[in-house]
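Moderator note: this is an archived Q&A kept for reference. The question asked for a predicted structure of one protein chain; the sequence and the answer are reproduced below.
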Amino acid sequence: MGSLIATEVNKRKIIEKEGVFNRITTPGITFLACYEKKVGSISTLPQSMRFRCTTRTKNEVEMILKITLKYQITTDRICEAYYMLPDPKDRFRVHIFDYFKLELKRIDDNEFTILQSDLEEELMEILNENMFRYGYEVIQLKARPQSRPHSTTKESITSSQESILCSSRRNNLSY
């Protein structure tokens, strides 16, 4: 004897036969034979995640980037997404953090705004290449500086010391 299961729109269910992957259901009503079992479901809707990435630029300025990533499971690779990488968020974070850490070490903080869209496009291509084997596709990636970064370099210390020296000289000149 079998059973019927319902699969919602934008979801797929994983069916195993005697503990081995058998098939993926599509939206609608599906008949399961007595030897089949539903082991899980997966959403095909676009997913999004947000996080911060902190790193330093070539001129040692700390940059805090707000990352927004939209991705989805490709419908022809649902099996890979379910079995190989059911929760891709950590993998995405690692790829994104490593990329910005490496790339921002090569540029000054002022160059970031000029190269921002090129960096985002290049990273999207890299993510799509790396994540396709797991069944994921990147739809959109945005990396925005959280605020104007402050410099922690010797230059900023020197400029603040100069302003203190200038003000003390003005005070010493007035008798």
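Archived answer notes: The chain is about 35% helix and 35% strand.
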